[in-house]
Design a protein that fits this description.
alpha+beta, 22% strand, elongated
Length: 143
């Protein structure tokens, strides 16, 4: 039943407990209790919305592979995810590097940010790529 709740909420996070109850043949209280348990167990991390970046004026999507000094990887990651342009920061396997996604209003803003990255202490090199075509994007785990 929890998997069904997660499936419905990942498709439409605005479903009320009453609507979920009708879909699952449960009472509103039973749905609320199950959702609260999913939250308490950390299965549901948070409720949020998905914003279309293009319609919000973010015309440039860039990915950065950032080679860093091991001793500074955590502080660099913290510095990066404090920037509003950054949507995701991941530490990758292998040599010490971060994979970072950012959204910008235009290419000039992206180029400026690239120069900013190269000036941060502990960053050894930065490779960047612009997103050309978005074929599939999924914000939720499918169960």
């Amino acid at each position: 039943m929890d998997r069904k709740i997660l499936k419905f909420l990942s498709e439409n996070g605005r479903l009320s407990n009453a609507e979920l109850g009708r879909l699952l043949n449960l009472t509103r209280a039973a749905v609320r209790e199950r959702i609260n348990q999913l939250i308490d167990h950390g299965i549901i991390d948070r409720f949020t919305i998905v914003v279309n970046p293009l319609k919000a004026g973010k015309m440039v999507s860039m990915y950065f592979n950032i080679n860093v000094e091991w001793s500074k990887i955590d502080s660099i990651a913290e510095k990066l995810f404090a920037d509003q342009e950054i949507t995701n920061v991941y530490q990758m396997s292998g040599h010490p590097h971060l994979h970072v996604h950012a959204l910008f209003d235009n290419q000039e803003q992206g180029n400026h940010y690239m120069r900013k990255l190269q000036s941060i202490d502990g960053i050894q090199s930065v490779d960047s790529e612009f997103l050309i075509t978005r074929y599939k994007e999924r914000g939720a785990l499918l169960l």
